[in-house]
Amino acid sequence: MLKAIWAQDKNGLIGKNDVLPWHLPNDLRFFKETTLGHTLVMGRKTFEGMGGRPLPKRQTIVLTRNRDYHNEGVLVMHSLQEIIAYSQTVQETTYIAGGASIYRELLPYCDQLYRTVIDHAFEGDAYFPEIDWSVWRLCEQTEGRVDEKNHYPHRFERYERINRAK
């Protein structure tokens, strides 16, 4: 099963120079708790922006056009078809974790979305692609706690696809 997970500001911004333009420990914890024990798919730039090493206790897939790319401890794939086929053969959930072009290409295959919305405007260069929200149902929404480490109001949302055409 494919699911997408991301954080965005109130304008849909998701990145600046291939990294997050904010620091929000609550969201990092949410991401970890949600994806632990599962597979993460991300583009090469996103992967390298996260330090270029796989996250613990998660299988990481790097999607790249570069046929010569390799990195210790990750699976490297070169097409959407490989990602989709992989997600259909494994028992654990496969989470799409960025960047913008990877989300754009794989959203049509996702059954659930996990979105953190930060109620603040940041500067950056990557935005989440437009979504047809009429095919998604909000199932869960939780307000995040603002404190000395989490300076911005935020909420965690989970959506399920309403109807998938067969």
UniProtKB/TrEMBL annotation:
Q: Which InterPro entries match?
A: DHFR, DHFR-like_dom_sf, DHFR_CS, DHFR_dom
Catalytic EC class: oxidoreductase
Under the heading Gene3D superfamilies, the entry gives: Dihydrofolate Reductase, subunit A
Q: What keywords is this UniProt entry annotated with?
A: NADP, One-carbon metabolism, Oxidoreductase
Q: Which reaction does it catalyse?
A: (6S)-5,6,7,8-tetrahydrofolate + NADP(+) = 7,8-dihydrofolate + NADPH + H(+)
User: Which pathway does this chain act in?
Assistant: Cofactor biosynthesis; tetrahydrofolate biosynthesis; 5,6,7,8-tetrahydrofolate from 7,8-dihydrofolate: step 1/1
Q: Which GO terms describe its molecular function?
A: dihydrofolate reductase activity; NADP binding
The function of this protein is: Key enzyme in folate metabolism. Catalyzes an essential reaction for de novo glycine and purine synthesis, and for DNA precursor synthesis.
The record's family statement is: Belongs to the dihydrofolate reductase family.
Q: What is this protein called?
A: Dihydrofolate reductase
Q: Which organism is it from?
A: Enterococcus florum
